[in-house]
């Protein structure tokens, strides 16, 4: 079997910035799009020339990848050597996807789209400051399917201001109607430095988010989706290979500004802004901002922390027998493996800090 190897490509442009988002993305630098895609092309060609391994998964994320010229993005994706049957995903915002996007992506071998749906309640989308409504999502899913995309992930966020339990239940029910094969549901997180952080009146509440998590898990499970990582559910066989590679500490190369890479315990990341990235590539200089070498023990513990979050769990010896007794309702011990219980998925850090 080919050793898994992932490629991540970062597209740092959005039509506007959501006020909860801390990702490396800009809404005032569209004039850089062409130069940025040129720089990506050059950086990838260099790595391929230097013998970059053949990728088993490619993920184009952002920002909003569907905002840039789909033909140019497709050309970039096509320049990456991939294995037969590699998983190739592009993250899209529902409002910016057209038949032309899907046709260009399909021609580049893309078999999976990930839509940032966030909610299927119109009011919640407004309060999240999104540019789409529930109908836009239905339309985007139909366009993807009509264009031949086989695999769909839909991303959701829960706990935004004004979102009722009924809104959330409605979102999950409507989402199931759309029959995606993969769902990611994230608790809204207050990220430092965002406008949301400055407005405590809109901060999410832990109990509300816990209730919403349990509703999502139960409705998704009844509809045939299995939870395989705390925030991710998939129909059997539709788990995201690229995510699994990250969680199993596999090797991957990130291209573009702010992209991270990992090779056998060495992690490094690129400069954060598109301007700087473009200049460095043009000057034939390294785009690496910084790097760290993980000592073997830290790498081992990080591996356990990641695995604990998945249904693969951790070996029983990773917790002391007294902690196993103490953590009782948060874990499930089956033979030599410990996994999180449903309640434990809500309090994963309580378990993670005790891993040894
Ligand atoms: C960086 S975004 C890129 C995708 C796309 N631009 C979008 O927003 O729909 C990837 C996902 O991160 C999640 N996300 C972003 N900021 C978040 C936050 N503060 N808390 C929880 N989830 C967040 C959203 O679900 C989003 O779909
Ligand atoms: S569209 Fe996505 S990446 Fe862009 S600002 Fe909003 S959450 Fe962040």
TrEMBL record:
Keyword Ribonucleoprotein: yes or no?
no
Database matches in InterPro entries: Aldolase_TIM (IPR013785), Coproporphyrinogen-III_oxidase (IPR034505), Elp3/MiaA/NifB-like_rSAM (IPR006638), HemW-like (IPR004559), rSAM (IPR007197), rSAM_sf (IPR058240)
User: GO CC: one term?
Assistant: cytoplasm
Instruction: Write out the GO MF terms.
Output: 4 iron, 4 sulfur cluster binding; coproporphyrinogen oxidase activity; metal ion binding
Which Gene3D superfamilies does this chain map to? Aldolase class I
- Please name the GO terms of the biological process aspect recorded for this protein, alphabetically: porphyrin-containing compound biosynthetic process
Domain Radical SAM core, by residue range, is: 1-226
**CDD domains per UniProt:** Radical_SAM
Q: Keywords in UniProt for this one?
A: Chaperone, Heme, Iron, Iron-sulfur, Metal-binding, S-adenosyl-L-methionine
Q: Which family does it belong to?
A: Belongs to the anaerobic coproporphyrinogen-III oxidase family. HemW subfamily.
| PANTHER family hit by this protein | COPROPORPHYRINIGEN III OXIDASE, RADICAL S-ADENOSYL METHIONINE DOMAIN-CONTAINING PROTEIN 1, MITOCHONDRIAL
| Protein name per Swiss-Prot or TrEMBL | Unannotated protein
Q: Which organism is it from?
A: freshwater metagenome
Top-level taxonomy: unclassified sequences, metagenomes, ecological metagenomes
């Amino acid at each position: 079997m080919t050793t898994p190897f992932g490629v991540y490509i970062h597209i740092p442009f959005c039509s506007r910035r959501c006020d909860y988002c801390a990702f490396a993305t800009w809404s005032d630098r569209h004039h850089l799009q062409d130069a940025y895609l040129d720089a990506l092309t050059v950086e990838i060609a260099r790595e391929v020339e230097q013998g970059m391994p053949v990728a088993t998964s490619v993920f184009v994320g952002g920002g909003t990848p569907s905002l840039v010229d789909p033909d140019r993005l497709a050309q970039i994706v096509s320049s990456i050597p991939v294995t037969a049957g590699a998983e190739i995903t592009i993250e899209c915002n529902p409002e910016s996807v057209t038949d032309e996007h899907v046709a260009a992506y399909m021609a580049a071998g893309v078999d999976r789209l990930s839509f940032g749906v966030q909610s299927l309640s119109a009011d919640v989308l407004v309060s999240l400051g999104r540019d789409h409504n529930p109908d836009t999502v239905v339309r985007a899913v139909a366009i993807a399917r009509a264009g031949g995309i086989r695999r769909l992930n839909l991303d959701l966020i829960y706990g935004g201001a004004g979102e009722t339990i009924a809104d959330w239940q409605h979102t999950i029910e409507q989402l199931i109607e759309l029959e995606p094969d993969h769902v990611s549901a994230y608790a809204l997180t207050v990220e430092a430095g965002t406008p949301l952080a400055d407005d405590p009146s809109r901060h999410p509440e832990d109990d509300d988010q816990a209730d919403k998590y349990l509703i999502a898990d139960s409705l998704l499970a009844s509809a045939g989706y299995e939870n395989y990582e705390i925030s991710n559910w998939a129909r059997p066989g539709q788990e995201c290979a690229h995510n699994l590679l990250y969680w199993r500490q596999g090797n991957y190369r990130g291209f573009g500004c702010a992209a991270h890479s990992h090779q056998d315990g060495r992690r490094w990341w690129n400069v954060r802004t598109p301007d700087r990235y473009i200049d460095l590539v043009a000057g034939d200089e390294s785009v690496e901002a910084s790097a760290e070498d993980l000592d073997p023990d830290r790498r081992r513990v990080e591996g356990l922390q990641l695995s604990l979050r998945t249904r693969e769990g951790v070996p029983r010896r990773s917790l002391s027998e007294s902690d196993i007794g103490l953590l009782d309702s948060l874990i499930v011990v089956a033979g030599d493996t410990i996994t999180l219980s449903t309640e434990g998925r809500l309090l994963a850090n309580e378990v993670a800090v005790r891993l040894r």
